[in-house]
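Exam revision sheet. Question 4 asks you to relate a sequence to its structure. Input first:
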Amino acid sequence: MRTREQLVEFEAEVREVFFAAMLAGYAADAPKVGVTELPRAKMVVFARGDYVVNDFYFTAEGSRYSSGMTVIRHKGQPVWTLQYQGWYELTAIPFLKRALRCTYEQSIFRGGRGPKMFRQGAYSYQNHVEEFRETFRHFVGREQVSRYEEGEGLKVAGWHEYQGMLYLPFAA
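Answer key, structure tokens:
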């Protein structure tokens, strides 16, 4: 049985590992490895002490859609997950990664994704986390990248819906 203080400390530790993994992972163009058991999947692995983070995503040939999951394990046990699905134009991905790094570099948690709003050049990023579910322990949201095109205005360049939660392994 863990105390409330121990749970708060555990959550803070998992959160710290999350930001370190994200800064070293996909948003930083870390090398991705294939997953033999999951064709068309790519994964980034991060390890720190008793923690291992697997960040993997799937695509299907001929489709622009993707889905993925980030799993943080502590001593082999899953303790936190983030699932996402949607699509992005390939040309929007470098901008998406810059938006994600904005929150990761500042250790700001907004559903494990980017800031509420981010703009650069022709691109804009919006991230909406449901108000009643905007904590590291449980979150649900949607992000979107748009691109401004002369004469046509804003066009959607991709989006992801996401959700996740902390697995509190100990009763308080």
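Marking note for examiners. Helices lie at 4-24, 93-105.
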